[in-house]
Amino acid sequence: MSSVLYDAQGPRAKRRNVLYTAVFLVALAAVLWWVYKSLDDKGQLDWVLWKPFFSGTEAYSTYIWPGLQNTLKAAALSMVIALPLGAVLGIARLSDHVWVRVPVGIVVEFFRAIPVLVLMIFGLALYAQYTNVSSDDRPLYAVVTGLVLYNASVLAEIVRAGILALPKGQSEAAMAIGLRKGQVMRLILLPQSVTAMLPAIVSQLVVVVKDTALGGAVLTFPELLASANTMSGYYGANIIASLTVVAVIYVILNFSVTSFASWLEGRLRRRKKSTGAVLGVQDAAAIAGTAATGAER
Amino acid sequence: MFDFLDKYDVLGAFWTTVQLTLLSAVGSLIWGTLLAAMRVGPVPLMRGFGTAYVNIVRNIPLTVIILFASLGLHDTLSITMGSDQVETANFRLAVLGLIVYTSAFVCEAIRAGINTVPVGQAEAARALGLNFTQVLFLVVLPQAFRAAVLPLANVLIALTKNTTVAAAIGVAEAALLMKKMVENEAQLLPISAVIAFGFCCLTLPTGLILGWVSKKVAVKR
């Protein structure tokens, strides 16, 4: 699309581009030099701080892997619980009965309007005051509770949008052959919309993984980010090195998930058999209120 | 039942939330627009930089970025953002982190807006002899921004909610106050209700008003 904005370049434009490239390169180099200088001044580039990550696997097996496991556990649990809940809420929001549709709509909009962190803090206090969940398990419970409440409402909107994206003829034809409302939903609309919204659901997984980090920073949940803090304590104030390694792991993990979602989306869009309704990465992002989260199309 | 309201400065905490939101919104709108301009521009190096920035930043949790700002920039590299006080420095670092993170999403929202502008607009502008900067800033971006109001509104709502992450580095905003209150008072439900109400007051009208604005300013085609 970018070529829409400018013509094929002639000699002058090419010269100008070389100039821009040079200026940008200098600016970029200056910034990188400044970063290098400030790191070096504080001794942050000393090999001893980075050594744990490049020689031996102790840092990975003792700190990062258990942290990553907890991150993935919380994300998987949240998604597994939120999916059916979201499906029920999404279908209920499409109900013909006002007394079902309106209350469910209020619940969904309410939980989408509130930050996940607030829901997590609420969950932590809830389990501490009203249940006998052991204090070791409470952070995990609280993180999963917060993520489920928020993501169920986002998934509800994805399910609703996925069903509404199907051509009207599908439900009309189903009713014409005499299916009841429940049958139309169960036999005709849901199976088609599940494939349509698959990319959106997969890309929501990235949001879930990213939000688990809140549990590490605020609720003492021992996940990947929290392992950076522990490592920095153990390996001698190498917080910059530890956070960099952790950030790289997040990027690799999330980038592969979004790439998979985009690949899935492209595959579904190219498929000739379907109704043509596909709920993509961008749609999921719009629903989650986080703008485009997807990888490059 | 709501007597904790006298003991804690709930309004002050929400004011901090609003300040975080507005400052980061302005900053990320500027930086995000520049990133979008780089990503659609003719210079390959800038395009590459914009793409790399967006794909890296939006895949890192905001919590990591904000913790890095506090533990890495402030504590380790002694970057104080021009303030001797830890509270002010943390507030400014939180704004910095929010700008770094949110601008990636602003960039994508604006790019999505640019994608809605028909090819003919840019072609006609080029036929008039406008150069790339003129095509972008006089013809394409004004239309793109009008189409980008709704995605940008989504970014703003997400930003409002994301300011709670600043609680991780001790900025005294609403979520940190909530944490403090639920730990000290045995009134979980009223406290949560007040905080939830506060966030509803911030996010729901933003969505409604900007949704209305986006319909109002949409380019009729």
From TrEMBL, chain A:
<dbReference type="Pfam" id="PF00528">
    <property type="entry name" value="BPD_transp_1"/>
</dbReference>
<feature type="transmembrane region" description="Helical">
    <location>
        <begin position="239"/>
        <end position="264"/>
    </location>
</feature>
<dbReference type="GO" id="GO:0022857">
    <property type="term" value="F:transmembrane transporter activity"/>
</dbReference>
<keyword id="KW-0813">Transport</keyword>
<feature type="transmembrane region" description="Helical">
    <location>
        <begin position="140"/>
        <end position="166"/>
    </location>
</feature>
<dbReference type="InterPro" id="IPR010065">
    <property type="entry name" value="AA_ABC_transptr_permease_3TM"/>
</dbReference>
<keyword id="KW-0472">Membrane</keyword>
<dbReference type="InterPro" id="IPR000515">
    <property type="entry name" value="MetI-like"/>
</dbReference>
<comment type="similarity">
    <text>Belongs to the binding-protein-dependent transport system permease family.</text>
</comment>
<dbReference type="GO" id="GO:0043190">
    <property type="term" value="C:ATP-binding cassette (ABC) transporter complex"/>
</dbReference>
<feature type="transmembrane region" description="Helical">
    <location>
        <begin position="187"/>
        <end position="209"/>
    </location>
</feature>
<keyword id="KW-0812">Transmembrane</keyword>
<feature type="transmembrane region" description="Helical">
    <location>
        <begin position="104"/>
        <end position="128"/>
    </location>
</feature>
<feature type="transmembrane region" description="Helical">
    <location>
        <begin position="18"/>
        <end position="36"/>
    </location>
</feature>
<protein>
    <submittedName>
        <fullName>Amino acid ABC transporter permease</fullName>
    </submittedName>
</protein>
<feature type="transmembrane region" description="Helical">
    <location>
        <begin position="74"/>
        <end position="92"/>
    </location>
</feature>
<keyword id="KW-1003">Cell membrane</keyword>
<keyword id="KW-1133">Transmembrane helix</keyword>
<dbReference type="GO" id="GO:0006865">
    <property type="term" value="P:amino acid transport"/>
</dbReference>
<feature type="domain" description="ABC transmembrane type-1">
    <location>
        <begin position="68"/>
        <end position="261"/>
    </location>
</feature>
<dbReference type="InterPro" id="IPR035906">
    <property type="entry name" value="MetI-like_sf"/>
</dbReference>
<dbReference type="InterPro" id="IPR043429">
    <property type="entry name" value="ArtM/GltK/GlnP/TcyL/YhdX-like"/>
</dbReference>
TrEMBL record, chain B:
<protein>
    <submittedName>
        <fullName>Glutamate ABC transporter permease</fullName>
    </submittedName>
</protein>
<feature type="transmembrane region" description="Helical">
    <location>
        <begin position="93"/>
        <end position="114"/>
    </location>
</feature>
<dbReference type="GO" id="GO:0006865">
    <property type="term" value="P:amino acid transport"/>
</dbReference>
<dbReference type="GO" id="GO:0043190">
    <property type="term" value="C:ATP-binding cassette (ABC) transporter complex"/>
</dbReference>
<dbReference type="GO" id="GO:0022857">
    <property type="term" value="F:transmembrane transporter activity"/>
</dbReference>
<dbReference type="InterPro" id="IPR035906">
    <property type="entry name" value="MetI-like_sf"/>
</dbReference>
<keyword id="KW-0813">Transport</keyword>
<keyword id="KW-1003">Cell membrane</keyword>
<feature type="transmembrane region" description="Helical">
    <location>
        <begin position="20"/>
        <end position="40"/>
    </location>
</feature>
<feature type="domain" description="ABC transmembrane type-1">
    <location>
        <begin position="14"/>
        <end position="210"/>
    </location>
</feature>
<dbReference type="InterPro" id="IPR010065">
    <property type="entry name" value="AA_ABC_transptr_permease_3TM"/>
</dbReference>
<dbReference type="InterPro" id="IPR043429">
    <property type="entry name" value="ArtM/GltK/GlnP/TcyL/YhdX-like"/>
</dbReference>
<dbReference type="Pfam" id="PF00528">
    <property type="entry name" value="BPD_transp_1"/>
</dbReference>
<feature type="transmembrane region" description="Helical">
    <location>
        <begin position="126"/>
        <end position="145"/>
    </location>
</feature>
<keyword id="KW-0029">Amino-acid transport</keyword>
<keyword id="KW-0472">Membrane</keyword>
<feature type="transmembrane region" description="Helical">
    <location>
        <begin position="188"/>
        <end position="213"/>
    </location>
</feature>
<keyword id="KW-0812">Transmembrane</keyword>
<dbReference type="InterPro" id="IPR000515">
    <property type="entry name" value="MetI-like"/>
</dbReference>
<feature type="transmembrane region" description="Helical">
    <location>
        <begin position="52"/>
        <end position="73"/>
    </location>
</feature>
<keyword id="KW-1133">Transmembrane helix</keyword>
<comment type="similarity">
    <text>Belongs to the binding-protein-dependent transport system permease family. HisMQ subfamily.</text>
</comment>
